[in-house]
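Subject: Predicted fold for Amidohydrolase, 399 residues

User T.R. writes:
Posting the sequence so we have a shared reference for the thread.
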Amino acid sequence: MTDLRLPHWAPALYESLHRTPELGFQEHRTAGILADVLSREGFAVTRGIGGTGLVAVLDRGPGPVVATRAELDALPLQERTEAPFASEVEGVMHACGHDLHLAALAGAAAQLAARPALPGGRIVLVLQPAEEMGSGAARMVEDGLVEAVPRPDVLLSQHVSAMAPVGVLASTPGTALAAADTLTVTAHAPGGHTGSPDSGPDLVLFAANLTQRLHTVVGRDVPPFEQAVVSVPALEAPSAPGLRAPSVSARVNIRTFAERVREPILDRIKAVVRAEAAAAGLAFGEDVRLTHDSRVPRVENTPRIRDRLVRLHESRLPVRHLTVPPALASDDVSVLAEAFGSPAVYWFVGSGEPGGRLGPVGPACHTDAYLPHRATLAVAAAAMREALLAGLAGDLDVG
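User M.O. replies:
I've generated the structure tokens; pasting them so everyone works from the same file.
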């Protein structure tokens, strides 16, 4: 059985990335660090794809092309983990484990590059900006990613999870993660004084009513045997005391598994926005606008390849690899899989206390106290290393 040893520099790389997080499309330092590390380890690196994105290729001659993706960006949260390597950037932290994904990928890549008997083929590493914004993968594709690298025979990706302890991997055959749509509602009005509430539309009241109504769409407009989420995660209405806000914006997020559910929800949201605008005395299309900012397809695992990977992980590593239901989270690695036209496998790496229970535990990803257990890095690096190696060796049956 393979051990979980890391390159000696990998933990320091992880801590350095954690200290200096960067938001989407601003990851210049992060991309530079990874470009330097991967170049040093023998990968040919191309920077600036989709802004801050980069690709790194290790070419060992004829053979399969095996690709993987890791994310460069952090989240706009103030860290409160009290870790000795906590974020030094005010209001920004790696609350979703992307720093660990990067360090694990770099460690796995270095170990493979150092193998004198590595099977022939090419390893393609895609380091993507702005995963949290849902648009980084699309930006790389628009900027020529598919033409810049050989088409992968398989696309592999992993993500930390607080839903499982260290030493547990988890994945789903078939649909693994939901599709996500992000929309923005913006409204404008002349504003006015709060002492004259009858002198014009109140945009904050419009946004509040709209938010409440949108949160009923799933409960009243989606069949109860289907799964979906509609939420309004952000409202902005800049103003001052005594003034009605002259503008307001509401971010709307939708998660669905099936297109037969997604399309009616999009139609219903448009109808609700139009109706609430009319009720507030606002003209839809003029005072109120609805924009569709991004679409992320659902993540689909190729069952045959995923099942081979499960057996491989359990035979080569001291881990359990479990089957779990699909999650209503999303990941725009699906955009890359669509663009490449490649089969894909996506799995989770447990980051909770070793020996802990399965299921929701705190702190969770996307919270200001989330910090993977220190042993997670070695497991993630080994899981990715063995998956890439299996792809090169033909053990994943990707043909």
